[in-house]
């Protein structure tokens, strides 16, 4: 589904990423971990097209997207959340999700201007789909709430639902558990599992290591912009380099207890 081949990024002489390579299959959950400044968010910015690579290649569903702008990647089936939730804070929870659904409508700008019958049908369908997606969710009782009035945790959950509503093949989640309560965290973990069960590839930058160990199929560890280790959670727990570089500890118990 997604192939990253020897990607390198330089900012003003600083090597932010160096020869990063990995491949993600449909339905896989990849946890991306590492200390602060390791290059995790830079990697997400490269994958989503917000910054350009200096060297390397990115392939998505067998297409070379290395030079594609971010909007083209989104329309092709790649969606992303950010560390700080970015919602449309002046409209309702329902309409935030409906906006994402409408982004999938072909001929969006022309159709919206002309108001063809197909446009009306697409909008009515989006209204129904948004309600169905939200009705049994954590936000089910807040469908009509203006998004700006939601708590921080619920705004983060809304952003995940909006990204999911775009029907992506690949979804990038940047620290989705940050600032959440334990109950909200469990909701997000179930969403991550459900997205993967639907065949979507999920890449997930996260500092809450127990959650990554619980949910991820594979984990990629970055340090100083380089790949330190790649493997299944059990392998990462036993990796001495990971314990030294990421945790600053030698005991494998520390990895599971943090």
TrEMBL record:
<dbReference type="GO" id="GO:0016887">
    <property type="term" value="F:ATP hydrolysis activity"/>
</dbReference>
<dbReference type="Pfam" id="PF12399">
    <property type="entry name" value="BCA_ABC_TP_C"/>
</dbReference>
<dbReference type="GO" id="GO:0005886">
    <property type="term" value="C:plasma membrane"/>
</dbReference>
<keyword id="KW-0378">Hydrolase</keyword>
<dbReference type="InterPro" id="IPR051120">
    <property type="entry name" value="ABC_AA/LPS_Transport"/>
</dbReference>
<dbReference type="InterPro" id="IPR032823">
    <property type="entry name" value="BCA_ABC_TP_C"/>
</dbReference>
<keyword id="KW-0067">ATP-binding</keyword>
<keyword id="KW-0813">Transport</keyword>
<keyword id="KW-0547">Nucleotide-binding</keyword>
<feature type="domain" description="ABC transporter">
    <location>
        <begin position="2"/>
        <end position="249"/>
    </location>
</feature>
<dbReference type="GO" id="GO:0005524">
    <property type="term" value="F:ATP binding"/>
</dbReference>
<protein>
    <submittedName>
        <fullName>Amino acid/amide ABC transporter ATP-binding protein 1, HAAT family</fullName>
        <ecNumber>3.6.3.17</ecNumber>
    </submittedName>
</protein>
<dbReference type="Pfam" id="PF00005">
    <property type="entry name" value="ABC_tran"/>
</dbReference>
<dbReference type="InterPro" id="IPR003593">
    <property type="entry name" value="AAA+_ATPase"/>
</dbReference>
<dbReference type="InterPro" id="IPR027417">
    <property type="entry name" value="P-loop_NTPase"/>
</dbReference>
<dbReference type="InterPro" id="IPR003439">
    <property type="entry name" value="ABC_transporter-like_ATP-bd"/>
</dbReference>
